[in-house]
Amino acid sequence: MNLRIIRLQFVIAFLILTSISMLHLYEAYRSYGTFGLLENTPYTQSLLFDSFSGVPLIYLLIMPLAVSVGVSDIYIQDRKQNLLHYAYMYQLRKNVDLKVILYSSVVAALLVITPLIMNFIGEFLILPNILPERFTNKPLGFFTTYTLNASLYYAMPILYILLYILLVGMWAATMNVLSITLSLYTNKRIYAIIGSFIFQIILIILTNFTDEPYIAPPIYFLLVKTGFMYINVLPILLTFILYVSLSIYFYIRGMRKYELD
């Protein structure tokens, strides 16, 4: 049982993310054409790596909205219009929900990953393919304090960048699950659409009150070089556990409310 993914809202979300990635590509092209700096390479200027541009922040900030509107809301609409009722007649409700959530999460990941890969490939077309090395990249902040596993970045930069893009896709899937389960819990479409976005804003606000946060908004650590916090695996892991725990809670409570109704 698959979602009817190709809808106008999905196309709009994809075009918005792609436009942002292309805007950043143009910005990198213009910057290199003006200054011609040797450190401007695909390994330092791709969307998640460019710490001197505001475009990556915009991309990651609206990512939860793009996922919710482009993917999660399709499930929410299908459920409200009883389009899943036929599947519920022949399979257990939880099995149908699990299949749909998994399928939509893969689509959500692809929605976010595809513009990032397009941006990365485009960087090779406009910037010199010069491998990163510690001396030239240290002024850009690519070292252990601000970058997750900086040694892998210098050893295998292409693999490192692709792994980081996959990490962003994983978080897109996680945000999709949170939005869908929130829709089950609240039965309100608007809450489900803006829920992941608002939750990230709340985490940003809360993080500013602590010197060493144990929970961090995804936008902080999905940037490869972050100036917002010292990079650490523990906040990433705890934040993931928080998202998963809330999703499980919303799903269980939502199913109980449905059974009572």
| Helix fraction bin | over 70%
Alpha-beta content class: mainly alpha
Unreliable residue stretches:
none
Q: Give the overall average pLDDT.
A: 84
Amino-to-carboxy terminus distance: 25 Å
Task: List the secondary-structure elements in sequence, H or E.
Answer: HHHHHHHHHHH
Q: What is the tally of beta strands?
A: 0
Strand content: under 5%
Helices, by number, come to 11
Largest sheet: none
Q: Write down the overall geometry.
A: globular
Radius of gyration: 20 Å
What does this structure look like?
Helices cover 72% and strands 0% of the residues. It has eleven helices and no strands. Helix 1 (8-35) runs antiparallel to helix 3 (55-80), helix 1 runs parallel beside helix 5 and helix 5 packs antiparallel against helix 8 (157-186). The longest helix has 34 residues, at 93-126. The chain is globular. The mean pLDDT is 84.
Task: Please tag this protein with its features.
single chain; 261 residues; mainly alpha; 11 helices; globular
